[in-house]
Specification:
CATH topology: Heat Shock Protein 90
Distance between the termini: 59 Å
Strand order of the largest sheet: 1-2-3-5-4
CATH superfamily: Histidine kinase-like ATPase, C-terminal domain
Strand content: 25-35%
Helix content: 25-40%
Order of helices and strands: EHHEEHHEE
Number of strands: 5
Bound molecules: adenosine-5'-triphosphate, magnesium ion
Structural class: alpha+beta
Shape: globular
Largest sheet: 5 strands, antiparallel
Amino acid sequence: MKEQFDNEMKLEFISKASNESFARITIAAFASQLDPTIEELADIKTAVSEAVTNCIIHGYDNRQGIVKILAKLQGNTIIIEISDNGKGIENIELAKEPLYTTKPNLERSGMGFTIMESFMDNVQIESIVGLGTKITMSKTIKKQEVEEEEFQCITKE
Ligand SMILES: Nc1ncnc2c1ncn2[C@@H]1O[C@H](COP(=O)(O)OP(=O)(O)OP(=O)(O)O)[C@@H](O)[C@H]1O
Ligand SMILES: [Mg+2]
């Protein structure tokens, strides 16, 4: 791993639905180095969850495969790449449309990409049919203003 970023990590796991929360929590733990607010962290977790679920359900069609995550920190920004070597996306523009899903019977609402795009600053989709899909998303964590804390003085008698 080249030291090009302030920090970098890689995660690889089998495409089991039970690993979705593992991935979400692991990336949240890594992202917490940037001191995000609870809301910012929740946004990152939701976006990771959507992308990982897509790899498992669509990329691998619930067959076994490997999901890879590469996360990098640069300044206040986290960049997350989530990829599979599954079936790929035929029409990326269509896949990004809100409510578009190829699995309507599986309680899918077709909102995964819309959610990723609204919760992250930038989302890029690269896909080759038969080879797989890579989602690259980033979010810049806003600098928080340090609030002056009020201390209560407790005097001992
Ligand atoms: N990793 C992937 N591999 C192959 N196809 C994908 C992948 N990710 C998304 N797609 C395709 O893009 C479509 C839209 O994805 P999106 O996440 O927006 O909706 P969804 O997964 O169908 O529904 P939801 O996310 O709301 O449960 C999917 O229905 C699927 O056809
Ligand atoms: Mg989805």
